């Protein structure tokens, strides 16, 4: 562990000091590096991934995943077929990165919207490939995470292979899970039929999310999968989608009582969010 990769001896929190990222450029939108002809995309593409020029990790790997060459596209506007291409790329990158000897855990994620720190609006996600299993993922996998068996009034979409529901102990006003009904450790283990249904459910979910407050919803999305090296029994793939908005343009902040205690006070009933999303799913 380098001096920039620090463990708090009391809380066990791991902190990466990434001061070099302070010098990242803030590009004007007219010079989007992800649009065709831009710095990162000289050639036409549907979806693509590449190494992040501004990696947050000193070890492992950091990549950018572009969902579309269209600057104004959203996850919802990709449609099921566009999302299916993203799923295939996520699976391919996970497999490739997990083959590297210095990589254990591949985190696929997205921040959408300035409210959650996205610096470029062009639709894209990221990958952080760690040489260890981060603490939260370790905790979820160690406890044999599996989908809520009875989401009841928190259920949003129930497919043949996947369900989307609002989390029971939701930390954020919008806290959703999309997970397969049966145990699948990795995206790469999903058959064509499963991938198609996952794409369809994600599409419906994101269309509904962008209608929830009649505005593009700022959100964070991440995927939990099995690590490459550390073995866990029954690692169960799942996708979480969370948003800090509790109303249009109204951000709910995680503040002192919550940061200090890791106990949360959510002003929104997950069943209410689920009911509203169900009514918006077409
Ligand atoms: Zn662009």
Detailed description of the structure:
With 282 residues, this protein is an alpha+beta fold. It has helices at residues 79-98, 135-142, 192-212, 256-261, 270-280; strands at 5-7, 14-16, 48-51, 61-66, 105-112, 124-130, 155-158, 162-166, 174-180, 219-224, 238-243, 245-247, 250-251. Strand 7 and strand 8 (162-166) form a beta hairpin. Helix 3 crosses helix 5. The model has no long low-confidence stretch (mean pLDDT 95). It binds zinc ion. Zinc ion (ZN) binds at residues 32, 34-35, 71, 122. The site of zinc ion has 5 residues, from loops.
Helicity level: 10-25%
Overall CATH architecture: 2-Layer Sandwich
Mean pLDDT: 95
First-last Cα distance: 49 Å
What CATH calls the topology is HIT family, subunit A
- Number of DSSP strands? 13
Radius of gyration: 19 Å
Cofactors and ligands: zinc ion
Major sheet: arrangement of strands: 3-4-6-5-10-11-9-8-7
Q: What structural class is derived from the secondary structure elements?
A: alpha+beta
CATH class call: Alpha Beta
Query: Low-confidence runs (pLDDT<50, min 5 residues)?
Result: none
Beta-strand share of residues: 15-25%
- The general outline is globular
User: What is the name of the CATH superfamily?
Assistant: HIT-like
What sequence of helices (H) and strands (E) makes up the elements?
EEEEHEEHEEEHEEEEHH
User: What is the domain total for the residues?
Assistant: 1
Number of helices: 5
| Main sheet record | 9 strands, antiparallel
In short:
This protein is an alpha+beta fold and 282 residues long.
Q: How are the elements arranged and paired?
A:
Elements: E1 5-7, E2 14-16, E3 48-51, E4 61-66, H1 79-98, E5 105-112, E6 124-130, H2 135-142, E7 155-158, E8 162-166, E9 174-180, H3 192-212, E10 219-224, E11 238-243, E12 245-247, E13 250-251, H4 256-261, H5 270-280
Antiparallel strand pairs: 1-2, 3-4, 4-6, 5-6, 5-10, 7-8, 8-9, 9-11, 10-11, 12-13
Helix pairs in contact: 1-3, 3-5
């Amino acid at each position: 562990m380098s001096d920039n990769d620090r463990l708090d001896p009391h809380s066990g929190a791991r902190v990466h000091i990434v001061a070099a990222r302070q010098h990242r450029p803030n590009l004007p939108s007219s010079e989007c590096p992800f649009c065709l002809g831009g710095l990162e995309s000289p050639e036409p593409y549907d979806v693509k991934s590449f190494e992040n020029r501004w990696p947050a990790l000193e070890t492992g790997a950091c990549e950018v995943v572009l969902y579309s060459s269209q600057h104004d596209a959203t996850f919802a506007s990709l449609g099921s077929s566009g999302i299916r291409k993203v799923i295939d790329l996520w699976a391919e990158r996970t497999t490739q990165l997990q083959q590297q000897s210095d990589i254990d855990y591949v985190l696929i994620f997205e921040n959408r919207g300035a409210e959650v720190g996205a610096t470029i609006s062009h639709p894209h996600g990221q990958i952080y490939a760690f040489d260890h299993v981060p603490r939260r993922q370790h905790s979820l996998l160690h406890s044999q995470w599996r989908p809520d068996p009875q989401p009841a009034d928190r259920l949003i979409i129930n497919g043949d292979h996947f369900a989307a529901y609002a989390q029971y102990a939701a930390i954020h006003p919008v806290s959703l899970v999309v997970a397969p009904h049966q145990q699948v450790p990795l995206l790469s283990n999903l058959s064509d039929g499963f991938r198609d249904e996952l794409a369809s459910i994600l599409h419906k979910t994101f269309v509904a999310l962008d209608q929830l407050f009649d505005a593009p919803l700022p959100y964070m999305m991440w995927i939990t999968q099995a690590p490459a090296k550390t073995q866990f029994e029954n690692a169960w793939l799942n996708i979480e989608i969370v948003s800090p908005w509790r109303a249009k343009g109204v951000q709910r902040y995680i503040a002192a009582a919550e940061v200090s205690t890791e106990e949360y006070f959510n002003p929104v009933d997950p069943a209410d969010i689920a009911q509203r999303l169900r009514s918006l799913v077409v």
